[in-house]
Structure formats: C-alpha cells, structure tokens
Amino acid sequence: MKIAYQGIEGSYSESCAKEIYPDCKTIPCKTFDEVFTKANQDEEVRAMIPESNKTTGNIGLEYLIFKYRLNIYEEKFYPIRHHLLGLPGTKIQDIKNVYSHAQGLSQCSNFIKKNNFVENVRADTAGSAKYISENKIKNEAAIASKQSAKIYNLDILASNIEDEKGNVTRFLLMGKPILQPELKNKKYITSFLFKLKDKPAALYSALSGFAIQGVNLTKLQSYPEKNSFSSYFFLCDLDGHIEEPKVQKSLEELGLHCEDFHVLGVFTSDKFREK
Prior knowledge:
- The protein has helices at residues 12-20, 32-41, 62-68, 102-107, 109-114, 125-135, 146-151, 202-213, 245-255, and strands at 2-6, 25-29, 45-53, 57-58, 71-79, 83-86, 97-100, 118-121, 140-144, 155-158, 168-175, 188-196, 217-224, 232-239, 258-268.
- By secondary structure, it is of the alpha/beta class.
- The chain has three domains: 2-79 and 168-175, Periplasmic binding protein-like II (D-Maltodextrin-Binding Protein, domain 2); 83-158, D-Maltodextrin-Binding Protein, domain 2 (3-Layer(aba) Sandwich); 188-274, ACT domain (Alpha-Beta Plaits).
- Strands 1, 2, 3, 4, 5 and 11 form a six-stranded mixed sheet that branches. The chain has a five-stranded mixed sheet with strand order 8-7-9-6-10. A four-stranded antiparallel sheet has the order 13-14-12-15, with helices on both faces.
- It is elongated and about 65 Å long.
C-alpha cells in the first residue's frame, strides 16, 4: 500500500500510517492539497489526514474534504507525544526560539509560556526538527516526535510537554475508490456531507429524522461554501452502518431537505471511542 502524508520523515502522520500498515510505502508531500491530489489521481494511493485533535479541535482541512470528496476507509485515534528537541549538548536554559507546526505549538502552549519561548510556525513538526539539525543554532529548538529526534540526531531536552497528557489526534485514511465494509456485528461510523436547501428552519427539519429514528450524531460541523457566508456545507458522522434500516430512513429524511448530499464513507469505529 502507498500512503501519502503532509510533512517529511518523522511526522506524526507518517508514524500513524506505519503503525496501521508497517509495510506501507509512505509518500511525503509539502501540502495537504498535494496529499489529496495524489490520492485523487492514483487509485492505488491512500491519503493519511489528521482530522481533529482532542486538545485543539478541528485541524482545518474541511475545505479539502469538500473539494475532493475522497472516500474514508478507516479512522485512527493516534496518541501525540510532543518533545522539545535541540542540538546535542544543548540545555533547556539555552533555548529562546521554538519551532513547530501551528498545532504543535498550540498543544504545548503552557510549556512554551512557562519557559518564555518565542514561537515560530513552520509547515510541520518533523520539518522543524530537520531545520534545527541543519542550522545548528544552539538557542533554537523544535517541538516534534521522539522519532524525529532519532532521525535528525537531536537531543530530547524535555519530554511529553503537551498541555493534555491524553493528547490524541484523529486520523482518516482516505482514497478514490469507493469501498464499503459489509454490515456485521461491529460498531460503524457513517460519514457524509450535505448542503441544505435555502428555506426557514432547514437544519432543524433536516435533523429531525435522526432524533425520530434514534440515530446518534457524533459530529456536525458547518463550513461556508466558497465565496459565501450565507451558504454552508455540513460535515457529519453518525453511529451506525448505512445499510441499517434506521440509518437509511434518517438519511432519506435528510435528503428531502438537501440540494447536495454525498456519503464520504462507512468504516469500523476505532476502539478508542469505547474508552
């Protein structure tokens, strides 16, 4: 299997891909749009996408999910352990500037404030570690993974510096082919997007079917349509398989109120949800 991800070797996205599929071939990409494009153009390529984080919320890639409408095959709640990485021999007292992805900086904000570090946003965590390794400036450090420390020959100056010790990111494995698991005695998630017709109380009416059928919505997120703040798409997850009668009836009712509706995927619920 080939899995595209944003960042370089040592990123959390790559580590997550390797944990799920140890023998996969990973494809580093500079941007998330490039990740989606590769999966959209090659049916053999999958995209590993960080969708949301327990500490900081949504990653902000909804516009790409709407744009490409790739199929979701799998979700993985992956633990994120951030570390402060510096040049060999560096002490934490030497550090003035810290580099990382915006999410990494945000997830370690308490540690950063406590040490009066100056934040510097870069494209990814592993790329920040590589930058520190190549530039060799002793008062600079990166917030990245333990794997990045090994790859780029850096010392771990402080471990597990994230604000929330149960820090977890939800990753989605996506691709072009439409693949759907058979309905068995398992817990499933059905993910879909929709755009409502322009009429009063449209959202209330559209969601009523889920309440009537007893279907639990685990995610409902709005995102403005391109060049508009009056028209919105909604990204939604529900507990259940699309072939279950109550789910089918709920989605049929929703469809009556939509001018656009698209199923993104049906996949097995990660066991992390049971914790």
